[in-house]
Amino acid sequence: MATAQMPGAPAAGSDVHELASFGYKQELDRSLGFFSSFAAGFSYISILTGVFELFGFGFLNAGPAVWWSWIVVFVGQMAVALCFAEMAGQFPLAGSTYQWSKRIGTDAVSWMTGWVLIIGSLVTVAAVAVAWQVVLPQVSTFFQFVGHTSDAGTYSTAGGAQNALLLGAILVVFGTIISMLGVRTMARINNFGVFAELIGSVVLVVLLLFHINRGPGVVTDTLGTGAGHSWGYFGAFLVGGIMSAYVMYGFDTAGTLAEETNEPRRNAPPAILRALAAAALIGGVLILLAMMDVKNIHDKNIGLLGLPYIVKQALGSTAGNVFLIDSAIAITVCTLAVMTGCIRMLFSMARDGRLPFGSTIAHVSGKRKVPIVPALFVGILSLALLAVNIANQSAFVALTGVAIIMFYLPYLGVTGSMLWRRLRGDWPRPEHGPYFSLGRWGLVVNVVAVVYGSLIAFQIAWPRAAVYGAKWYFRFGAYEFIGATVVIGAVYYWFVQRRKGDQVVAEHRADESQFSISRPALGEVAP
């Protein structure tokens, strides 16, 4: 869709003027094209990270029929992505979900959306970084620096946890350095990683086609995993299906780089949708073929070692190692994408004066136009969280599971606020313009997004021993950790932030008189 001038908006084609219409001056390096925007969302989802790391969990708990959860999650998340695409076309701003909820929701909702997502992102950085332990020691025991070779491919044993901490720390330090070198350097590395992941995934799918041992009907096999569940196989399916919910999120990152993307109103919406669609298609086919290829569907190693085991069994150790290396590259750029999203969220909130020391945090320094303080903040806190993995592996596993919910809740902050506006007749706006629009399907898609988001958050948070461990304080970890996060955020908002309102820090504020543009107030829809 071509960008066109909207009533009361800056001249078409001027991204700087367009940004000024929201009250901000151009500070970040606007140099990214469409592929870089797409790559940011695709690398965050990262099929070769999520599926390689979590396939074993899904298969162990729900058998081959767990594949259907991939379809369910894709449909729900596509409804969310469609809502986000509409938001990205209207509000092309760094910080995506925070900024979107700010423009259509209440002050409290926007604050909590940003706050919860920051905490969730920090935990996710650590969770993705330790995934190197799942693949690299299986490529070569050289990467098992600490512990024994039997710890390879796991971070749930003492030696595995120690080695995962070391490998994860190396990856976090690398990501922090790249983030500080500027968005162009980050984009080059991310684009290369996504290109490698796309090529590797397609080649892997093609090769698996030549090693099929059974038909696609395998996805109806439950392997008796429903035994012992009070809800039968449906209970097992809910547990195993968490695999899919853990993988398909983060596509909004294509929108969070809007202030660094050329023509973001035109490029960001399709980038969000294509990132999710491409990841879902490749991942769905890959999971299906893996189960069709395995020699013995009852092999216990499938649940223990996951997809790397199946790939090596089907293609041999040499070819299998090549794809494990490709997976390691995907994990690297996924970590970089998560860090990038968190850094932009910190920058965006601090620029609005919604974080302590906002001016310092939002400062953009050097020719590379990088918010240095957020990059260091994300790196240091991620390293601290990695230490939890060596101190208590059960706590780390529970914490990373909870972090996923801390994305679904902020997503509800956007889709819920949008639905509220729709029901009031305030959305879409009269000046919506030619940018991405759901049209007459908007209400239906929006309702599906809200219902799905609510159910999936509840589903992941449900206190199951199979997910969070037998101890009660781990099983209820979602309610404890998220509850504490919400309480802390609410207290800060009530006593500090509520009185400030929408106060863009002076050095980040655009000279609105220069552009003669009015913009919507916080939580208001522009007339």
Describe this structure as you would to a colleague.
The protein starts with 14 loop residues before the first helix and ends in a 12-residue tail after the last helix. The chain has 24 helices and no strands. Helix 3 (47-62) packs across helix 13 (264-293) and helix 9 packs parallel to helix 13 (264-293). It is mainly alpha-helical and 527 residues long. 54% of the residues are buried. It is 67% helix and 0% strand. The protein has a single domain (40-503), classed as Amino acid/polyamine transporter I, CATH 1.20.1740.10. The chain has helices at 15-20, 34-45, 47-62, 67-90, 97-104, 107-129, 132-139, 158-180, 183-208, 233-240, 242-247, 253-256, 264-293, 300-305, 307-315, 317-351, 358-361, 372-391, 393-424, 442-461, 465-468, 472-475, 477-495, 512-515.
Structural class: mainly alpha
What low-confidence regions span 5 or more consecutive residues with pLDDT below 50? 1-13, 516-527
Largest sheet: none
The rough form would be described as: globular
Distance between the termini: 24 Å
Characteristic key phrases:
single chain; 527 residues; mainly alpha; Amino acid/polyamine transporter I; 67% helix
Structure summarized in a few sentences:
With 527 residues, the chain is mostly helical. It is 67% helix and 0% strand.
Describe the protein's topology:
Layout: H1 15-20, H2 34-45, H3 47-62, H4 67-90, H5 97-104, H6 107-129, H7 132-139, H8 158-180, H9 183-208, H10 233-240, H11 242-247, H12 253-256, H13 264-293, H14 300-305, H15 307-315, H16 317-351, H17 358-361, H18 372-391, H19 393-424, H20 442-461, H21 465-468, H22 472-475, H23 477-495, H24 512-515
